């Protein structure tokens, strides 16, 4: 019985909607038995046959071949950007038969804006995605043009790796990876409709050309394409990106299903030809000599030649030109009112808002090894094209530059993410997931982070497994998603280290020890990676033990420690306490032969951080634990907040809209006060008790004799009992 | 049936430990635990994964166990302010209730038997007699401790009740000792809330409490608002704003490294120093509460025969001290109670301090010095007839050095009283004011015989203690226990911040304690600071790509 349990479990307790007759629109109905069988059969070989082939083999002939072009998958991912690729890969790697639909096969994992990955907080996201078994870190490691560690001296939690990447190589490499997975099918298509079943569950998508694709899980990662419109000056046209058509129709379809949509705006600066730029007077910015890596997989750690970035500044002419032409820009001319990100203001925004600042930094970054394009970072503008070249030429070094692509702004539809739960499944439609810019974020890293979670959950959902939620304090990914679904954001969301309350615990160096075990359990970390991970942790642990036990007295080493730290070194001091002294780094141990040669640089960093900041880390952890105990109390999903008279009116409204899953989430919603939270806790608990009492009484009445039931919490155990 | 059992099991099992992460793949059990947990606890097929840092698990698991649960709370559970009662009770509840009580409570029995160095291990529901001690080991009150260990208690947690003398001062001091030992102040109705959440109370009781609590918190909000009007509140507010401004500066540099000018560290450190000073002010303000309850101790010191006793008599409008022409009449400390603008004060008339061979007078001089050291305000009396003499200078030097050697954190402010003002020689007037201005916060002229200058003296006393005269509407801005607790928390954070800066830890670590300080200060108004920091960053800095 025991061994059969899990199988039986999934068999019996798969939510009914999965075993429901799949109600294909405008096709004949199939019986409950058939779909049940198909569910049952597809697991052993990990593949699901198309309905038509299945029908021809099957006993039920109601499905006639060729009547309707339809294909059946476990998961459909709409969009092939950074969210879509991670989602599709995660899903396919988990064994789900996955279809990736994209508008243009040649633009998979395209970097339409800054050809860079990482930076503060974003690099933590990349490390985390990698620790879970995602792809973005490997890609950035493989295609970098330059790498730098930022914030090196500002503390281990805010240290951040940033890579300039070769955008064409990046897209090609990612395409290769996506193409090489046998569970993953790619198709060019414009999705215009999602197909909904009887129980508000997703059934598939319909494309512009009339194809229906079916799956119990669908991930939408529409990026800037949904009703996208690009602007250069006053001129605009429907497009998702320059040169690519927008995706039309899907917004209206989602609206008709009751989703709220809103509009956001973002922009990208001009590209110039590097051969026309005079770098001689510009400040070069080289990459790090000792290269760091995003991925925890040493197989990706292949060094390559680095390219140089350059720094220039705006001049008074730049500022004058902009001030004279403010009415030519969409924001100040007043013909676009979608909100742009505060963190990527256009140059005109910077100049208007920060009048006193005489000059702004502008970075010139290469876009690839084989293309002459330079990305002009910090210089996005809504000015018309005719003024853009003149504007660029006010910058030192760019006096004679040739512009290859004009800067443009893009407006697009997004769905405020309070409509999703933390699994990124929408609250309205079972099996429909949103990821990336559709949720109002900006950035490849943010997209990838959501992508991997929605991919995992889409696959799990299609299999009838419970979905995964990353708690806020577990990771930046968790923080990101929690912010998205609770805060009702109306401007593009970018990850920042200050968004995390306990960032000291969410460092790049421990992303693997935080998330790789979970990645392993989910099934995205293979044996090789797992062995690597385990031996790494073991080495770190042993090294920490060693440092605790090895003692040193006097000598050159002690003398240098004393000079570096400004603190005396007592005799028989352990290496551990030496490492705790200010300014003493593991390097110093190495220098005097007290280091451990078996450790890699990054392992040494881990040891150093763990030891040096142990006190702070412990304090943060205990602080967090106190918060967590309270915050993880779950809220029932069907609470009627309006009936809770002890809540303020504002919080009743907000809570009804966001429908938080935990007390912690509820407390983070704007307008919900601590007093409201107390009242909420009481209300929930007293209701739980009422329900408990009722079921107890019912149990007594029905003569059930099981004592365990009565002692345990609420109704679901009863449901299970009767099911058994 | 077996299935149901399997699902229910996790409820009954402790969370698996991660002590040996590599030997037996504990994450598997961990994960399964979560899956089962979720299936058993919620009706939807959702699972919650709180991932943890494996690297730190081994060292922390023990630590964590202790913290799990929602902390230990303390409060005075008998009614307050209704005049002194015979007995009042301070209740502690939570996982560390016994440990906290053990820190402040010394059973009499054990002191005798074991020297008082063993952790207190009370037997549940057995009353013990003993003392409550404060941080410095001074006895605060004689109490009965009633331990009620989980689950046989009101909250179903470990509960210790300390039965003190029923006066508010005692109770507050005992409570404060508990808070300093690690308890947090209970929210209104929190004991009942816990009792309810831990299944101690039934539904109808709980519903009553729900009503009660919502009523109470509305009232609490009102009273908190009323309570923090005036100087204290604006001090806290400005401190908080400064914390947030500093955080803004630091955070902006952490998140947007490339785009901002480097930080000016010396000015930053200066700012922090100023804030620390302000915070000390706030804590001093908090001590006002204490002063109100215990009263001010005012020691009158000086050479013999400068009119100290006459001053006491004139001030207290009594003939409490014997006054003669003979130097050294007062041999012992004489007390008299007065009320200074509503604040109770005890005047201590002391023996004139001088070199003497008289044994009784010697002892008197010692007592004078002791009284001066323990006082909240020292009044140094001199005679206008003699002016500022060599002996006066010596005497005050002596007092100052003994104050320093006693290593008091805060030395009592001193006021110079020039007595016998009626017979002063005019020409000496200015010179000694100049001499003494460094030592004395105030100089007041009095004439004990006529009572002239006493009211100025009273004003001076209030001023040097930072006690503004109280308006007729009553005291509006005293600091309550909750605010005091947050101020302490803030101070601790600042002390740590200071260490971080001194040890030259990276900037990110400064933000941790700044955040803590801002949070503690924000607790009074209840704001979420992380949003505020962000908003502030964007309004202040030009950031972007």
From TrEMBL, chain A:
<keyword id="KW-0963">Cytoplasm</keyword>
<comment type="similarity">
    <text>Belongs to the MnmG family.</text>
</comment>
<keyword id="KW-0274">FAD</keyword>
<feature type="region of interest" description="Disordered">
    <location>
        <begin position="694"/>
        <end position="724"/>
    </location>
</feature>
<protein>
    <submittedName>
        <fullName>tRNA uridine 5-carboxymethylaminomethyl modification enzyme MnmG</fullName>
    </submittedName>
</protein>
<dbReference type="InterPro" id="IPR026904">
    <property type="entry name" value="MnmG_C"/>
</dbReference>
<keyword id="KW-0285">Flavoprotein</keyword>
<dbReference type="Pfam" id="PF13932">
    <property type="entry name" value="SAM_GIDA_C"/>
</dbReference>
<feature type="domain" description="tRNA uridine 5-carboxymethylaminomethyl modification enzyme C-terminal subdomain">
    <location>
        <begin position="611"/>
        <end position="682"/>
    </location>
</feature>
<feature type="compositionally biased region" description="Polar residues">
    <location>
        <begin position="710"/>
        <end position="724"/>
    </location>
</feature>
<keyword id="KW-0819">tRNA processing</keyword>
<dbReference type="GO" id="GO:0050660">
    <property type="term" value="F:flavin adenine dinucleotide binding"/>
</dbReference>
<dbReference type="InterPro" id="IPR020595">
    <property type="entry name" value="MnmG-rel_CS"/>
</dbReference>
<dbReference type="InterPro" id="IPR047001">
    <property type="entry name" value="MnmG_C_subdom"/>
</dbReference>
<dbReference type="InterPro" id="IPR049312">
    <property type="entry name" value="GIDA_C_N"/>
</dbReference>
<dbReference type="InterPro" id="IPR004416">
    <property type="entry name" value="MnmG"/>
</dbReference>
<dbReference type="GO" id="GO:0070899">
    <property type="term" value="P:mitochondrial tRNA wobble uridine modification"/>
</dbReference>
<keyword id="KW-0520">NAD</keyword>
<dbReference type="Pfam" id="PF21680">
    <property type="entry name" value="GIDA_C_1st"/>
</dbReference>
<dbReference type="InterPro" id="IPR036188">
    <property type="entry name" value="FAD/NAD-bd_sf"/>
</dbReference>
<dbReference type="Pfam" id="PF01134">
    <property type="entry name" value="GIDA"/>
</dbReference>
<dbReference type="GO" id="GO:0030488">
    <property type="term" value="P:tRNA methylation"/>
</dbReference>
TrEMBL record, chain B:
<dbReference type="InterPro" id="IPR031168">
    <property type="entry name" value="G_TrmE"/>
</dbReference>
<dbReference type="InterPro" id="IPR005225">
    <property type="entry name" value="Small_GTP-bd"/>
</dbReference>
<dbReference type="GO" id="GO:0005829">
    <property type="term" value="C:cytosol"/>
</dbReference>
<dbReference type="Pfam" id="PF12631">
    <property type="entry name" value="MnmE_helical"/>
</dbReference>
<keyword id="KW-0547">Nucleotide-binding</keyword>
<dbReference type="GO" id="GO:0003924">
    <property type="term" value="F:GTPase activity"/>
</dbReference>
<keyword id="KW-0819">tRNA processing</keyword>
<keyword id="KW-0342">GTP-binding</keyword>
<dbReference type="InterPro" id="IPR004520">
    <property type="entry name" value="GTPase_MnmE"/>
</dbReference>
<keyword id="KW-0378">Hydrolase</keyword>
<feature type="domain" description="TrmE-type G">
    <location>
        <begin position="295"/>
        <end position="466"/>
    </location>
</feature>
<keyword id="KW-0479">Metal-binding</keyword>
<dbReference type="InterPro" id="IPR006073">
    <property type="entry name" value="GTP-bd"/>
</dbReference>
<dbReference type="Pfam" id="PF01926">
    <property type="entry name" value="MMR_HSR1"/>
</dbReference>
<dbReference type="Pfam" id="PF10396">
    <property type="entry name" value="TrmE_N"/>
</dbReference>
<dbReference type="InterPro" id="IPR025867">
    <property type="entry name" value="MnmE_helical"/>
</dbReference>
<keyword id="KW-0460">Magnesium</keyword>
<keyword id="KW-0963">Cytoplasm</keyword>
<dbReference type="GO" id="GO:0030488">
    <property type="term" value="P:tRNA methylation"/>
</dbReference>
<dbReference type="GO" id="GO:0002098">
    <property type="term" value="P:tRNA wobble uridine modification"/>
</dbReference>
<dbReference type="InterPro" id="IPR018948">
    <property type="entry name" value="GTP-bd_TrmE_N"/>
</dbReference>
<comment type="similarity">
    <text>Belongs to the TRAFAC class TrmE-Era-EngA-EngB-Septin-like GTPase superfamily. TrmE GTPase family.</text>
</comment>
